Amino acid sequence: MRSPASHPFLDHPGTLAFAHRGGAEEYPENSLASFRHAVDLGYRYLETDVHATRDGVVLAFHDNTLDRVTDRSGQVADLPWSEVSGARIAGREPIPLLSELLEEFPEARINIDPKDDRVVEPLVDLIRDHGALHRVCLGAFSDRRLARCRSLLGPAVCTSAGPLAVARLRLASLGIPTGRPAALCLQVPVRQSGIPIVDRRLLRMAHGRGLQVHVWTIDDPGEMVRLLDLGVDGIMTDHPGVLRQVLIERGDWYT
Questions:
Q1: Average pLDDT estimate for 154-158
Q2: pLDDT of 5 strictly over 90
Q3: Residue 209 CB: number of other CB atoms within 10 A?
Q4: How many CB atoms lie within 10 A of CB 108?
Q5: For residue 104, how many C-alpha atoms fall within 13 Å in the half-sphere facing its CB?
Q6: How far is Cα 5 from Cα 230, in angstroms, rounded to an integer?
Q7: Which residue in 15, 35, 133, 193 is deepest, having the highest Cβ count within 10 Å?
Q8: Cβ neighbours around 60 below 10 Å, total
Q9: Is the Cβ–Cβ distance between 55 and 95 less than 8 Å?
Q10: Residue 102 above 60 pLDDT?
C-alpha cells in the first residue's frame, strides 16, 4: 500500500516515475535534450543534481568537475559561468542552468540533489525566486546539508531523508526504536555496500510514518516489476522509456 502524499510534490495518482538526470537512453545525462525527451514521453518527474559556479550560478550538473562528461576540464566551483557555459556535454550539449529547467518545464516536478555546501544558498534563492517550493524535492548524501535547506526554506519544503536518517529508519524497521525523520520521503538504493535496504519491513515502517519510498537507480524491467510488487512509491531510472512501458503494462502510467 502506497503512502499518501504529504506535500504537493508527492501528490500523484500512481507510481512516481523519475527520469534520473533526465535519462541517458537517447541523449547525454543532465542535458536539456535528455529532459525534453523525458517530458515528451510524458514524465512529470525529473531528477537532477546541482552545483554552483564561482559566481553563484546554479547548474543542473552531477560532477564537481567538468572532466568526465564534457569537453572541458576544471572544478565547477572554481570557474565562472562565463567559462563553464562554453563546455559541451558529450561534446555537443550545453550544461543547463537549473533555472532553465524550472522555466522550460513549468508542469514538471524536479527532484534536486545539492552536491556541495556552496550551492545551498544560491539554490534556496533560486527556488524562492521561481516560486517553486510546491514542485521541488531536495535530497542529498548529507543530513547536515538537508537540515540547512530546511532551516532556510522552512516547513513548506519537501526533502528526502539523509543517510543517517535512513539508517535510523532501517534500524526502526528491525525493531530498534528511533524517532521520525524530518524528511517527507526516503530516496534509497535497493542495497548499500551489499546490505539490503529496501524490503517489506522498511516499506511497512516508512509507510507507517507517512513517508514515501523512492528507489534509485533501476534500469532492469524485471527489477522494476519486483519493486513495484513490493510496494515502492517511486522509481528513478536512466531508461525512462523502459520504466514507462512497465508502468503502462501495469495500468500505472499517469501524465
A1: 96
A2: no
A3: 14
A4: 18
A5: 17
A6: 18
A7: 35
A8: 25
A9: no
A10: yes
70-99 CB burial, b ≥16 within 10 A, e <16: beeeeebeebebeebeebbbeeebbbbbbb
Three-state DSSP class for 206? helix
Say what the pTM is. 0.95
Contact yes or no for 112/136 (Cβ under 8 A)? yes
Look up 207 and say whether it is catalytic.
Answer: no
Contacts of 95 (CB under 8 A, 6+ apart): 30, 31, 59, 60, 61, 70, 84, 85, 87, 89
Contacts from 168-171 at CB under 8 Å and sequence distance 24+? 169/202, 169/205, 169/206, 169/209, 169/211, 170/197, 170/202
**Joined grid coordinates for residue 181:** 525523520
> 176: which 3 cell numbers?
530498534
Alpha carbon distance 93, 220 (integer Å)? 27
Alpha-carbon gap, residue 86 to 94, rounded angstroms? 7
Question: Taking the CA atoms of the chain, what radius of gyration do you get in angstroms?
Answer: 18
pLDDT value, residue 192: 87
Identify the pLDDT of residue 1. 55
Name the active-site residue from 12, 20, 51, 214.
Answer: 20
207 pLDDT more than 60 = yes
**Mean pLDDT for all residues in the chain:** 95
Backbone phi, psi, residue 17, to 5°:
-105, 115
> For the chain, what percent of residues have pLDDT higher than 90?
88
End-to-end CA distance of the chain: 21
Active-site position among 12, 51, 62, 134? 62
Sequence-distant (6+) residues with CB within 8 A of 248 are none
